[in-house]
Amino acid sequence: RILYNCLMIKHLAIFKGDSAQLILTGKKTIESRFSRKKSVPFLQISKGDLVYIKPSGKDIIGQFRVKKVIFYDGLEEKDVKEIKEKYGKELAVDETYWEKKETAKYGTIIFIGEVDAFITSPIKFPKKDLRGWVVLA
């Protein structure tokens, strides 16, 4: 099923470890978000949307345009293993990441398009909670 988004939505994605830098350097070309409950960005992100890149505890350091999105509903452990085999290299995550995601029921695979690094953060977002993804509008 192909959905076309008429309005570009902006998102704030929080990245742990070196994932943000891997996106900026082109070593990570796909971002994934897995969960046991339906949570953003599941079904709330589309091709053409803009995602701000924010390392955990730091300012926004860049942005990327969404090239393509795949949603998974009702994942089982074997499905997560198939996703790992198919997209593992482009996701650039370690084995512990996959171990934590084995019980996920929902998944969002985001193909990263054009990436821009920022010298200074274009917006300040006073985020004080533990959400890893925020839909800005």
Characterise the protein shown here.
This protein has 137 residues and is of the alpha+beta class. Helices cover 20% and strands 33% of the residues. It contains 3 helices and 6 strands. It has helices at 19-24, 77-91, 95-101, and strands spanning 10-15, 30-35, 50-55, 62-73, 106-117, 133-135. Strands 2-5-4-3-1-6 form a 6-stranded mixed sheet.
Layout: helices, strands, pairs:
Layout lengths: L9 E6 L3 H6 L5 E6 L14 E6 L6 E12 L3 H15 L3 H7 L4 E12 L15 E3 L2
Parallel strand pairs: 1-3
Antiparallel strand pairs: 1-6, 2-5, 3-4, 4-5
Strand order of the largest sheet: 2-5-4-3-1-6
Query: How much beta, percentage-wise?
Result: 25-35%
Find the structural class using helix and strand composition: alpha+beta
Largest sheet: 6 strands, mixed
Count of discrete alpha- or pi-helical segments spanning 4 or more residues: 3
Helical content, roughly?
A: 10-25%
- Poorly predicted tracts of residues: none
Which whole number gives the mean pLDDT? Answer: 92
- Described by its quaternary structure, the protein is single chain
Helix and strand string, N-terminal first? EHEEEHHEE
Sum this structure up briefly.
With about 140 residues, this protein is of the alpha+beta class. The protein has three helices and six strands; from the N terminus they run βαβββααββ.
